[in-house]
Amino acid sequence: MSQNQIFAKKSLQALLNEMKNDNRLRRVLGPITLTSLGVGAIIGAGIFVATGAAAKGVAGPALMISYVLAGVTCIFAALCYAEFASMAPVAGSAYTYAYTTMGEIFAWIIGWDLVLEYAVGSATVANGWSGYFQSVLAKFGIVLPDQLRQAHYVYENGYFVATGSWLNLPAVCIVALVTIILIKGIRESAGFNALMVFLKLLAVLFVIFVGMFYINPANYVPFAPFGWTGISIFGVPVAGQTNAGGDPIGMIAGAAIIFFAYIGFDSVSTHAEEAINPKRDVPIGIIASLLICTVLYVAVVAVLTGMVPYAQLSKDAGVADAFAKAGLPWAEFIIAAAGVAGITSVLLVMMLSGPRVFLAMARDGLIPSKFFADVHPKFRTPWKSTISIGLFVGILAGLLPIDALLHLTNIGTLFAFTIVCGAVLIMRKLNPNIERPFRCPWVPVIPILGILSCVLLMLSLPAANWWRLIGWLAIGLVIYFSYGKRHSFLGKEMRGEK
What is the pTM (predicted TM-score) of this model? Predict the structure, then answer.
């Protein structure tokens, strides 16, 4: 029987039984806190960093529609996430859902993919935080030594080139600080996040309601200078234009590039085990945070591309630069300070989510359970997993540049969303009568649209992202067949081992 182990599924009842175990996480999160965690994860580097670059070189003012397309794609996936999260409110997110519907090998693939999403995404965000933090310090005349200001490597023409810098010290320091906060406890983490979310929402509203008075409608013409498509298959263009490097550009390509800005709403589902009333609160947190952020994103892009012609936007700090060009340099400091707060909360939620995925995988024996499933007796947090994720993220953030990490996070997340949408279809077929406190509407239409839209955006990413994803998954499969398959609790049960 063991030869069928890799396709064996974990029963939903087994997941629910885990919730009765004493070694579980503390239930302290309500719908408002969960929504705050979602908003905290979504609004950050995407709105403060990626917007200018995407509008300038990929989509122009049509980036507004790109954000709508990406948001709609996320809504399809969010409805599927919400159904699963209400059925099985335990840690693990898409990994857990795949285990109950597709089998162990697919669960491992998606779990390993989620580690990529959260860990590499955290390193990317830490790099962005460092840039904004150093710009704030510069306003006070404080400049770090060259050896500590940037990553040890830059990424040029497909190669890593040494910069002469030792490491990105601010990025490493913020990762260490967030790791300590996360070990202390989920309640403290959520409270810190709520403060950061409040500050950056004030800044985003400031950008919208002040910037709207400086909009020049002529800047919206042409609205889609790079076209409305931008689709390629493994680097071969099939619709739309490409840039000098051969990468697709256009409205759809813009949606794929800025998808990083939406990463985070799915992290709400990884905290289902810590929700007070997960069957109600988790779906509310997922959908509310996504809708709030979509509206804010579109409004900010409308303001920025209206204030400044898209070709003149800054690639590094589009929001602050737009206000400087509009004759409001005093706003630059406010926006930079808000960028620090906003990106901090994104980093916190991303690093909060990764250890929960490890915890779920360790509970199944796929990675060493004595280490990764260990919950602190006092703080009730997966502290060893948190430390290991913190070390990994710190190394990546200190040594590697932001552009080498950014798109890899996008394709990993879209892959995870595709799996979740497919899992809903399978679970409806395999277990049609199981209680579903929240039901994804219009099944199978919504899950199918989710799969198709995610694949469309994946095809609109540069080909290098596909090869990096394949390489990461190959490393994961080596680990699974050399360790996870032999130590899996489900596999041992099938083989009659204790």
Answer: 0.82
